[in-house]
Amino acid sequence: MLACVAEAATAYHVPVPAIERVLTAAGRAKGVGPMGIPAPWLPVLGAYGFPVAIMRKDACWGIAAGTWILAVERMYAGQNHVPGAAGRFVYPSALPSIPQRMTQWANQASAATDVPAAMILAVAAQESGFNPSAVSPVGAQGLMQFMPATWTRYGHGSPFNPKAAIFAGAAYLRHLALKLGSWPLALAGYNAGGQAVVNAGYRIPPYRQTQNYVPAVLGHYRQITRAQ
Q1: Which terminus of the chain, N or C, has fewer Cβ atoms within 10 Å?
Q2: pTM of the predicted model, to two decimals?
């Protein structure tokens, strides 16, 4: 196992002590593999090419997957963060406070589209931090950061209307999930475009922004569902 730890540390640029802390704590936590990986990470790992079925049985694969998660967390937590410092997995980026009215609208949009309300809110958190007036440098607008052409297809009224944005975001996520077949791929499509996911062979496209975006949104999703 020591060789597996050393190999994973080198591959993902994570300090060996950080991996060892998670390994030690895994015996006290429920999860998959020797590092006790939480279940919400499994679809993300699968989308990134980790063989989840093998990972459950092979210790080296489990250590590699857990170390990759630590590397993602380190990327989001800032330069002074030591991944796994507490001996457990954490999720990147603090979740902004969710306005109550947005939760109500997300629940309504969920009822209309079958997209989980927590997923809609997780996308809003990542896209704009729940700021209905947000405008990105490339021209994405509003709470759900719609580009004008996509808004024309899925939105009604103004993308700066937060209720309209939530309903349009839910409709777009439903379309992407049906087209691409999974929530991680739907999120990748929301960030990079559905065609980019198709062109990548129904995998998360090899764009750094998109590869960072998917686990960040799923991290928010887990935080929201745990708080409910």
Answers
A1: C
A2: 0.66
